Amino acid sequence: MKPIANSRAFAPELDVLRGIAAVLMIANHAGFRLLSAGDSTSSSSGAVVFLGGFAPVIFFFATGFGIALTSRPTGAARPLGPVLWKAALLVVADQFFYWPHGIACGLDFFSFIAISSVVVSLVARLRRPVLACLVLIVVLLALRYGLGPIWQAPAREPMLLQWVLGAHAVAGVSYPLSPWVVYPLLGFVLGRLYDGFDMSSGRIRSACLLLGSAAALVLLGMSLLLAVFSSSAFFRWGVVSAAYFLLSLGVLSVAGLVAMQLTYRLPRVASALALRGVASFAVIPIHYALLHLCAAVLPPPLERWTFALLLIAIWPISFAAASRFAAWANADLLARHRRVLVPGLLFSVAVLGYATLRLAAVEGMLAPLLVLVAQLMVAGLLGMRNPAPVRVIPTQVMASRRE
To answer: Concatenated DSSP letters for 43-68?
Structure first.
């Protein structure tokens, strides 16, 4: 396999991988929202809900992979301003998961995407970023599964240290630094490898399929052995067990192979599944709103066959709405009025945040509707382009000078 010289800032497989993550996410959230406790944890429906729990793994991996493609070494460090701006917007959007419940702040999915983006972007500025990522992965895993479990007096640990170690749950935090940040770091490493090869070559894809399948089998087998012989449960809430971490890497390998095969063998399916850019953000508030609507119309718990039918409907509606919204957010019209729209949207998000906090104890669809509108506004800010530079034709310049 010979690496190619040209680098790319776009990978169709990455968009398909995000789509796979979104499908899993919707299945997981729908299961816990609409099924009974028994159906969401047992039988075939429970298996679907459990598999959907790997969606953050794929999303975080995709974050690092995307940064690898857009931060190629060019001899000049990329500005951190845009990264910090997007990270701040993601943190604000994340708080709308907490404010409807009267909680002032927390760290959930969007905030961890923000943290991952900043961490990986900083590492990408180093002279040898791939080596730095590998060293960080080893150190973080050693902290989590080596030092973390034997650390004494967990109640006295500073909250920041608990979050870094990841061995003990922290109130209001869904994703501790370790091992969750390993996924975007790993994504960056594999993104840099991907950037050097021509994936349109059937020989290279066959080699990737062989290596990926072998890695998936080894990781899945190791996770099962660990679960059986060390009584390590497949647990990821608050803390991530060693068995679950190995299993997640196996699932991630399978998801990557599926994305690659769909992209090159079933392009129509891949196109329908792909989520690019801000669409992968917008699908999250959109599917939450649809789940709230379903729960209002058909109070849970639902029968499993009813749940399956709703799930089949929610998937394409969420994807279609997110893609249309992303196209609108990237429109030239919005880019031309960016200077007015950005402060206006920021002010509107602040007003909606205050209203959401005030309505925390109010039941009904009003609070979820405010959350949907606010998070879509944030998505609009994330997707809004800078206005394209105006090209001035020299003859027009000369004519204006003569006038």
So the answer is: HHHHHHHHHHTTHHHHHHHHHHHHHH
Helical ranges in 35-168 per DSSP H: 43-52, 55-70, 81-95, 109-124, 129-142, 159-165
Residue 107 phi, psi (nearest 5): -125, 105
Residues 6+ apart with CB under 8 A from 270: 12, 16, 259, 262, 263
**Residue 37 DSSP SS3:** coil
3-state secondary structure of 8: coil
Does the N-terminal peptide bond of residue 179 adopt cis geometry, omega within 30 degrees of 0?
Answer: yes
Cα 227 → chain centroid: 27
What is the pTM (predicted TM-score) of this model?
0.91
The segments of the chain whose pLDDT lies below 70 read 1-9, 72-78, 152-157, 388-403
My answer on whether omega of the bond before 100 falls inside 30° of 0, hence cis, is no
Report DSSP letters for 273-319, one per residue. Answer: H---TTHHHHHHHHHHHHHHHHHHHSPSSPPHHHHHHHHHHHHHHHH
Question: 221 φ, ψ to 5°?
Answer: -65, -40
| CA gap 187, 190 in Å, rounded | 5
Collect all residues with Cβ–Cβ distance below 8 Å to 220 and sequence separation of at least 6: 246, 247, 250
The token duo for 69 is 């493609």
Indicate the helix (H) or strand (E) that contains 402. Answer: helix 394-402
Left, alpha or beta for 172 (phi > 0: left; psi -120 to 50: alpha)? left
